[in-house]
């Protein structure tokens, strides 16, 4: 049973934050922001760019590209952030209503910035096991830059957070753009290293902790996390890519493109070099920053627009999310071809 991508949608706010603005807010040298952090500019949410609304705009584009009536959609999965219009709210049901998917049912999933990979894996599994699910809409939005305090140097590695929405339409019995196997790793030793410390049941919101800015992201042990995470993260990036390719029946030498999240340039280059790939085999998102779980969809869309992907190419989308989670999924673009031996 073949599951393929028939529609892609991305929404990006027009409002931008430049490297110069980040440098001024964070009291950092401009060269550090541009070169080490790899940020030229990033989209940030304007007053109407709410999390789920951005997912809706991306979803409408994906459905239009797919060329199907919304009533053909059987399932809507929201894979965007929990930071959205309302704190207790099933976003997938709102998306279902707004796009006109009146014959679908909907739910939300969450794995931080790894959720897009999880959503593709989960959608494929559901389509393989439930014959009533033939067409699935995946949609998500992200604007976690709202949680960044640029004066908090403990969160410096998250100064790249931006805003946007992304969506995919998947179809069963597809003949092109086939989705193969995914691999996911989670490591709970990092589960409380990056948190918003208030607003949950442990520390409810109070006027005092709001005034002190505790509603923003913080890192409880920045040096300890860096020491424990740095090499492990790169190793896990490589591992999930290799395992996804292997489970899909492809060789590493067949890999043509890697759609990566935005991270520091040295790490991005390391991943490419490991697989014998060059700069043109990926897109470094220096003009977009890190839009959470939207990065892989954005990278795929940009690569198609820039003709970096051609029919028959094998590509891998790879992600990482605080918690910590790593994930990768293999796709062969274009008309169906036989899987390699």
From TrEMBL:
Residues in coiled coil: none
Keyword Transmembrane helix included in the entry's annotation: no
SUPFAM superfamilies: Thiolase-like
Any one GO MF annotation of this record: 3-oxoacyl-[acyl-carrier-protein] synthase activity
Domain Beta-ketoacyl-[acyl-carrier-protein] synthase III C-terminal: 245-333
Limits of the Beta-ketoacyl-[acyl-carrier-protein] synthase III N-terminal domain: 107-188
CDD domains: init_cond_enzymes (cd00827)
Listed Pfam families: ACP_syn_III, ACP_syn_III_C
Keyword Ribosomal protein found: no
GO annotation (BP), single: fatty acid biosynthetic process
Keywords: Acyltransferase, Transferase
The protein's name in its UniProt record: 3-oxoacyl-ACP synthase
Organismal lineage: Bacteria, Bacillati, Bacillota, Bacilli, Bacillales
